[in-house]
Design brief:
This protein has 228 residues and is α/β, with parallel strands linked by helices. The chain has a single domain (15-187, 220-224), classed as 3-Layer(aba) Sandwich (Rossmann fold). It contains 8 helices and 7 strands, in the order H-H-H-E-E-H-E-E-H-E-H-E-H-H-E. Helix 4 links the parallel strand 2 (74-77) and strand 3. Helix 3 (33-47) crosses helix 8 and helix 7 (194-200) runs antiparallel to helix 8 (202-216). The chain is globular, with a radius of gyration of 17 Å.
Length: 228
């Protein structure tokens, strides 16, 4: 079985994500508290059952924190200091170093839209596995990539890999994890949907984000896995 790496992160040059990436990629979520918390509430409901929202959750690569916001026992870590500063301004529990995160104690290790950015995805999955508690699991989400013509130049997102279920499952097995659920999920949390939430409530906002995702085919590859 693969061993957890001795270092705190796979050998990556991620200075790109420690500069202005988040400010350039998510200006509305950073600058608009109403939008941020609306997205966070809808996202928690979209991914987690009511019971799961209260377990110990560690997010590996939390970005600006919308996946852990409002979850009482969640902790996030990210490589980007700018992202961590944004999280702390909103009162979220985040850490700078993986050395500060207890290993083997988390019911869910959550990783959303991170793996596709990493030069060493297998090593990252091995690292994630080391944080999972007995009986816990990895909740992994990567984009459902659309293949279309694009300019031949670096883009803002800098996705280095894409997967289908067969290839991501193979990678998880290599990391010492056993997938038990594969599904495509669709969601689109446009800021333009906020008036629906204001006038019709949180339920209406949640359902329109789901319908918007299906209509625009804004999909994700979602895999849940346990320690082998």
């Amino acid at each position: 079985m693969p061993q957890a790496p001795d270092d705190t992160y796979p050998s990556e040059d991620l200075s790109y994500y420690n500069s202005t990436y988040h400010a350039d990629r998510f200006p509305d979520l950073i600058g608009d508290d109403e939008y941020f918390w609306a997205r966070a509430e809808a996202q928690a409901r979209f991914y987690l059952t009511p019971e799961e929202r209260n377990v110990r959750i560690f997010e590996y690569g939390c970005g600006i924190g919308q996946s852990i916001a409002g979850l009482p026992r969640a902790v996030g870590w990210d490589i980007g200091q700018q992202a961590l500063d944004i999280c702390r301004r909103r009162g979220l529990n985040v850490v700078n170093s993986l050395d500060d995160v207890p290993r083997g104690e988390w019911d869910i290790v959550f990783c959303r839209h991170v793996l596709e950015h990493l030069e060493q995805p297998l090593e990252a999955l091995v690292s994630m596995r080391s944080f999972i508690a007995p009986g816990g699991e990895l909740y992994l989400i990567v984009p459902k990539e659309r293949h279309y013509e694009c300019r031949i130049a670096p883009d803002l997102d800098q996705h280095l890999y894409c997967w289908n279920f067969a290839t991501i499952n193979n990678l998880l097995f290599r990391a010492g994890l056993t997938p038990y659920r594969n599904e495509y999920r669709y969601m689109l949390g446009w800021r333009a949907f906020l008036p629906v939430r204001r006038y019709f409530g949180k339920d209406a906002y949640y359902w329109i984000t789901k319908l918007g995702g299906v209509f625009r085919r804004n999909g994700e590859v979602v895999v849940r896995a346990r320690v082998a």
